[in-house]
Amino acid sequence: MNGSVFDAVIESAIAGDHDALNQLWHHSRRWVAAILLAHKPREADLEDLLQVVAMQMCRKISSVNEPKAFKSWLRTVAINTAREEGRKTTRRKKSMLRLVGMEHANNRSPASADFIAAESDESKRIYQAALSLPPGYREPILLRCVRSMSYQQIGEVLDLPTTTIETRIARGRRMLKELLNQQADQQELQSKTEQTVGARR
Amino acid sequence: MNDYTTNDAKNTDDSNDQPIIGLPGDERDVLISRVIDGIATSHDWTIFRALAAHDPSIWTELADTQSIQETMCTHVDHFVSIADHIELPGGLIDDQPMRTRLDIISKWGGWAAAAAILVVWFLGNPSLQSSNEITPITAGFGGSNILLDQAQPDQAFDQYLASGQSSGQVVGEMPEHIVIETRPMPDGTIEVLYLRQIIERQIIDHAYREMRDETGNVFPVPVKLSPRTTNSF
Prior knowledge:
The complex is a heterodimer of chains A (201) and B (233).
Chain A: H1 3-14, H2 18-39, H3 46-60, H4 70-100, H5 102-106, H6 121-131, H7 135-145, H8 151-158, H9 162-200
Chain B: H1 26-36, H2 42-54, H3 57-80, H4 90-123, H5 126-130, E1 140-141, E2 144-145, H6 153-167, E3 170-173, E4 178-184, E5 190-195, E6 198-200, E7 207-212, E8 218-223
């Protein structure tokens, strides 16, 4: 979809055309998912959050002033949805603490939607490390994983120049690599310490 | 994009764009990133080869970064693909055409006509409207047909099961009854309240699940079920 066609679809959606709205959602939902991943609390279900964003898009798209503002508006909706879920999760955790005690609250449910038994430990470790990057780096790095998103398209979503996106992705990748190296070093040190303690016994 | 100068000075977004102390080699990082993302120009490759001639470790760096990127993207793609099954809320989408149609009807024939057409719409069976006679529902069971209004409850229930099974609507009855309450009666008998569980089936065109918005209102959300999906409702 080229720029002018896409703008026309956005204009139609803002005017209340449901087909255009659907088209827009299909075009955007993958990157919306990536934004949610970058901001949601660990326990939150991505599917539920996507449903909420889809609903907000239906109900509030008429508030978008111009087509150019659509992507950053939808990103803001996604971030707010993820943050609101974060607040709810904190409230739920607090009430759980009151009701059942600390040990239950600290147990993560294995039935969480994000739980993937089949995923390798290495892949999970890299993903978790990526989530621990500062948001300014985390978002473009995750968006780059969404199929066919160019630096320019990422820039449109984040409302930043393409060159900034390029720099952030490059830096973010380096930071991620350094973080993973640090973790590997720590694990190695820990395992050596355990071996030494075991040998002394 | 042959200029390796970073653009942090132009960026006013947040503090994340401050140069990172201890993170040298932005130009080198950008070059590696361009190679990984498949957007390196011939000029980029010339610089890359020149760098590699003096510092072969850049190849290892490239391989490591690419490996991390691919592993992470496989993981992220798995999550992000969930979005392909999320459709816009049906209730909100269909709301406006429904209202528009009712508006047209009410303008044309008044609210009475609108209400009548709405009933037909939801019943979806015009033949029901053409028949003025109420036909007693009968069903064969054990070789006999009994008018339902003359049948005993057990007979009527058995007829419902038989008729439902022959039409495919009833799958069967669960063998165990769930006892809700047992209480002694004054005459020495015991009254037992229990549930009988019937399994029915329906073929539907669209599946919806209930969601709540921020104000607690329930709204339907279409669910796309693929053969891979094991979710049930």
